[in-house]
Amino acid sequence: MQMACRGKLPGTGYLKAVLCLLGMFLMSATSFGSRGQAVAQQDSPQATGKSATAPGKTASDKSQGSTTAGNTAASNTATGNNDGLVIEPAELPPTYPHGPYQEKFHARGNYVPVLHWRVERGTLPPGIKLDDNGLLRGEAERAGEFQFVVAVRDGGQPQQAWQKAFTIKVVEAITVAWKVPAHVNANRIEGSVDVSNTTVDDMDLTFDVKAVAENGRATEIGYQHFPLKKGTMAMTLPFGESLPYGGYVVYVNVVGEVAKRNAIYRERMQTNAPLQVLVGP
């Protein structure tokens, strides 16, 4: 600073003094600004190597942590409390036309009472319905195999729902099948059938077999009338009779009656073609 004032300055002594002081002021201001900039650089995060975020975490880590927490919450909400709930029974028993049918659905597991049941899709056997409390009841009107899906909802807010597929088989109350198909033996037509009672009721059974000639004349070649006990399976009923020369179609008629329920079941079979009796008058 002193060296700056020792040089030759133009003008009078007063002017020299003013110029010297002005030069000293400018040099001091320049030196102070340089020192402030250096201190600011030393204290900055880039200069010290420290992050502006919390210790041990970067801005990227914070972003990922927020996303993970959000996904976990969404997953828990979607899962709900329906883990392990089981709709029972596992399967439904078969039934038969006009047979009384009653089964109760229930659920086992984590749910909020009260449960409400309905058929979500598919078809129940005609004559059978599902109540809101899960009771399946009625009497099937016809044979067949009926598939449907049951849905149940609990009393939670929001409600939880579960579904399960079921099948009800409605079998014929009585079944008839050839044991020994009708055939010609010399001048006889004979054979046998198996009759079953699949119901839980005893029934009054009428078994009737006729051979119908080409001219329409019918001849009785088998007849029985007796009580057929419930659950009887494949009872063999024979038939046969001597017939005149000619062709005959054989018809088997079976009728079962359950008087206490005013139910009548019918089954019928016949030969595919006339049977030819070639021995006889």
Question: Summary?
Answer:
The chain has 281 residues and is α+β, with helices and mostly antiparallel strands. It is built from 4 helices and 16 strands.
Topology (SSEs and partners):
Layout (H helix, E strand, L loop, with lengths): L1 H5 L6 H31 L1 H4 L10 H21 L6 E3 L11 E5 L1 E3 L7 E7 L5 E3 L4 E5 L4 E10 L7 E10 L3 E12 L2 E10 L5 E11 L4 E11 L6 E8 L3 E13 L4 E8 L4 E3 L4
Antiparallel strand pairs: 1-3, 2-6, 4-7, 5-6, 7-8, 9-10, 10-13, 11-12, 11-14, 14-15, 14-16
Descriptive notes:
It is a single chain. Among the domains are: 86-170, Sandwich (Immunoglobulin-like), CATH 2.60.40.10; 174-277, Immunoglobulin-like (Sandwich), CATH 2.60.40.10. By secondary structure, it is an alpha+beta fold. It contains four helices and 16 strands. The chain has helices spanning 2-6, 13-43, 45-48, 59-79; strands at 86-88, 100-104, 106-108, 116-122, 128-130, 135-139, 144-153, 161-170, 174-185, 188-197, 203-213, 218-228, 235-242, 246-258, 263-270, 275-277. A hairpin with a 4-residue loop joins strand 14 (246-258) and strand 15 (263-270). The strands form five sheets. Strands 11, 12, 14, 15 and 16 form a five-stranded antiparallel beta sheet that branches. Strands 2-6-5 form a three-stranded antiparallel beta sheet, with no helix packed on it. Mean pLDDT is 80; it is low at 34-82.
